[in-house]
Design a protein that fits this description.
Distance between the termini: 22 Å
Number of domains: 1
Largest sheet: none
Structural class: mainly alpha
Number of helices: 14
Helix content: 55-70%
Shape: globular
Radius of gyration: 20 Å
Number of strands: 0
């Protein structure tokens, strides 16, 4: 059994791999950019010849959700509701707001209309649940925040955290599995509600919780694994089909499913072997993943397009965009976030006090 807060270096390694996979997927495959309203892009390099090799990168998002289930299950132990709220908001808001403000400047400098751009920026900064964001990657923060809200609600009850987490994992696995079977038989319902209600991705969060419980030696987890894994694989299968339809090609789900499974197996293996030594480069790799994810589809794409317009060949242009995105993400984590976090912490603690979160801190049996 590992301690509640033991550090698992492989989590940060897998997290970084997932971020880079999504980045490469978006920067190298051009057809997803049809959904990006970045009007300031010059002509983007045609790299459709790489579609068949890099399409698996989308599964980095699903890997993120598994990691989130694991990490949140571990980090909520012994936390008061207000502390959990402040901690999660501090992880997201300083970097999110910084990146959105920078993107707003880029959009406006490129001639984007003022009012729609500001509205989209507001929807991004508030993680509006039903779209209209300045940066489409914000959609993944919606199920993340809903998951956080469920965990927060569990901390307000008298049920032990461990029992509450297992109940949440069961509910997410069952709900997601039923939704995926329904979608397979009758087609996936549109709109934002399936994502908002965690019907589409809940199995990944459930699997992360189960992996955490397994790392602590908890028994009786087989039913969760038996429901969460098929539900997660069905989601990956249907997502693969959807991306293939957008690209007008057939993609096999075997490759993204294999990448996802390898990440899950690595997490399961490494979670039983925590490290007492904190290697700085591994921790930095974990910390830069969030800003990489936020930056790549606008700032990264802009750098790729600008390099290509300047005569840099397509593949080196994408490599340059990825390197620049990682460098900017590191600068944000190293220099900007430490300045912003104390400011945001004061504001968030004030919000928690005004909402009287302390009243939710009930004694545990």
């Amino acid at each position: 059994m590992i301690s509640k807060r033991a550090y698992v270096p492989a989590i940060d390694v897998v997290r970084c791999f997932a971020a880079l996979s999504v980045t490469l997927f978006h920067l190298a495959i051009t057809w997803p950019h049809a959904a990006v309203p970045l009007k300031v892009l010059p002509p983007y390099p045609d790299m459709s010849f790489l579609n068949g090799y890099l399409y698996f990168g989308f599964v980095g998002v699903e890997i993120f959700f598994v990691i989130s289930g694991f990490v949140i299950a571990a980090s909520c132990q012994g936390r008061r509701p207000g502390d959990f709220f402040v901690g999660r908001a501090l992880r997201i808001l300083p970097l999110l707001w910084t990146v959105v403000l920078a993107e707003t400047v880029i959009y406006l400098a490129g001639g984007a209309p003022l009012t729609p751009t500001l509205v989209a920026a507001f929807r991004s900064m508030t993680i509006w649940p039903n779209g209209g964001w300045l940066n489409s990657v914000v959609w993944t923060l919606v199920p993340e925040c809903v998951f956080y809200a469920i965990i927060w609600a569990s901390l307000t009850t008298r049920v032990s955290t461990e029992r509450a987490l297992i109940a949440i994992a069961y509910a997410l696995a069952i709900g997601c599995g039923a939704f995926q079977l329904f979608s397979l038989a009758f087609g996936s319902p549109g709109g934002f509600l399936p994502t908002f209600l965690l019907l589409r991705h809940g199995a990944h969060f459930a699997l992360g919780i189960a992996l955490w419980a397994r790392s602590r030696g908890q028994a009786g987890l087989l039913p969760i694994f038996c429901m969460a894994i098929p539900g997660a694989l069905l989601e990956i299968y249907q997502q693969t089909l959807a991306y293939g339809q957008d690209a007008h090609v057939f993609y096999t789900a075997a490759l993204p499913a294999a990448v996802w499974a390898a990440a899950v197996v690595l997490i399961a293996y490494a979670s039983k072997r925590p490290s007492a030594e904190l290697k700085p480069w591994v921790r930095i790799a974990g910390l830069v993943t969030f800003p990489i994810y936020l930056l790549h589809k606008t700032c990264g794409a802009l750098i790729v397009a600008a390099a290509f317009a300047a005569g840099v060949p397509a593949i080196p242009a994408v490599a340059l965009g990825m390197i620049a995105t990682v460098a900017i993400a590191w600068a944000l984590v190293e220099f900007v976030e430490p300045i912003l976090r104390p400011i945001f912490r004061k504001g968030l603690e004030l919000v928690a006090r005004n909402l009287n979160f302390a009243r939710f801190a009930v004694p545990r049996p």
